[in-house]
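From the pipeline queue, job 12 of 40. The input is one protein chain; the requested action is below.

Action: predict structure.
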Amino acid sequence: MALERAVPWSGDYRHAEGNSAAHVKASLMGFSLQVPIVNGRLRLGTWQGIYFCEFDGPRTREVWIQLFAG
């Protein structure tokens, strides 16, 4: 709800497609993430999680995961 208040669909945007709010929200959230894996498990903090956010849908999307040895 806070994100909807900050970036409402009915804002005064100049983008002609009508989905400007979705573009702004996606820009605020980011599009990539790096998370360490330790002993085969995601190394997340106690209150951390990974969420897929779709602001202009539902649409069919691809999620890519790439592992790097380090």
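Job complete. The mean pLDDT is 90.
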